[in-house]
Amino acid sequence: MSKKITVYSNMERWFHSHLVHFVAFMFISGLPVLSHKFDFIAYGAGIPMAALTGNGDILSAGMSLMRFIHYSSAFLLTMMAIPFSVMMLRKFTKLSMWPDKWGVKATIDGFKEMWKFYINQEHVRFGKMNAGQKFFAQGVVIFMIVLTVSGYMLIFRDAFSVETAALARGAHAIAFIFLSFLLMIHVYLATHPTNKNSYSAMFKTGKMDEEFIKDHHGIYYDKLKKEEKIKEDTD
After folding, report:
1. Could you give the CA distance from residue 181 to residue 117 in angstroms, rounded to a whole number?
2. How far apart are CA 34 and CA 119, in angstroms?
3. What range defines the domain where residue 41 resides?
4. CA angle 197, 198, 204 (to 5 degrees)
5. Do 116 and 198 belong together in one domain?
6. Is 216 helix (H, G, I), strand (E, B) or coil?
7. Is residue 47 part of a domain?
8. Does residue 104 share a domain with residue 75?
9. Does residue 219 belong to any structural domain of this protein?
10. 17 and 51 belong to one structural domain
11. Shortest CA distance to 23 belongs to which of 73, 84, 72?
12. CB atoms within 10 A of CB 36
């Protein structure tokens, strides 16, 4: 039987699992705040809220609830992100989100390998993360920082000029749209049958079979051997 190799720490799995929850809450609650086209969400939430509070304005009651969910989810996510960020910064240069090879050609080759793997069902050598996953991770970090900074600026908008608050709102909306787009692609690829082992490792066990890593994540396997985290059996 193939040995199990730990590929995701408890902290990584804990953060990733709860990140899904908080992002979902912020996404749904943020839509009616972003545009009146999504007022139906606030209206639906406002019906029970209006009944409980006696507020006759259903939409107003719903918007108040949406803002509360949005702000509280953002605050809790921030508190959760602090210990995770500290842990990640301690091994910043070794994070899997960085390219295994640098350069334009290496980046293009990485996405070509994704095409071969997901579309043509061909065997390729990936690192711990493929080019798409690395691109996603980098994008999430950038847009989450923009969302966090601009979001807190909007919460405390009275401390800023009207022009600065308007810029923060624009940055918040743009980052929200791009992050939503990245998340849709990520969810699709994460639940793709070819990623079954990675999905299980992230949300269940934190481990993968050594033989699977060797066969599907060859670059990562070589790295683990170099770091002596995997020792091949010798007769």
Report:
1. 22
2. 36
3. 10-83
4. 85
5. yes
6. helix
7. yes
8. no
9. yes
10. yes
11. 73
12. 10
**225 and 158 assigned to the same domain:** yes
Do both 197 and 137 map to the same domain? yes
Specify whether the CB–CB gap between 155 and 71 falls below 8 A: yes
Residue pLDDT, tens place only, 39-75: 899 888 888 887 877 767 888 888 888 989 988 988 8
Report the C-alpha gap between 205 and 94 in whole angstroms: 22
- pTM value is 0.74
Helix boundaries (H) for the chain: 10-34, 39-53, 58-90, 104-114, 131-155, 162-190, 196-200, 210-216, 218-226
| Same domain membership, residue 228 and residue 115 | yes
Structure tokens at 75: 């605050």
- At 121-180, the pLDDT tens digits run 777 777 788 777 788 888 888 988 998 899 889 888 889 999 999 999 999 989 988 888
Shared domain for 179 and 232, answered yes or no, is yes
Q: In total, how many domains does the chain have?
A: 2
pLDDT tens figures, 173-224: 899 888 888 888 777 777 777 778 888 888 888 888 888 888 878 888 888 8
Domain CATH number, residue 112: 1.20.950.20
Question: Distance (Å, rounded) from C-alpha 30 to C-alpha 36?
Answer: 11
Query: Measured over all CA atoms, what is the biggest interatomic distance in the chain, rounded to whole angstroms?
Result: 79
> Rounded distance, CA 69 to CA 73, Å?
6
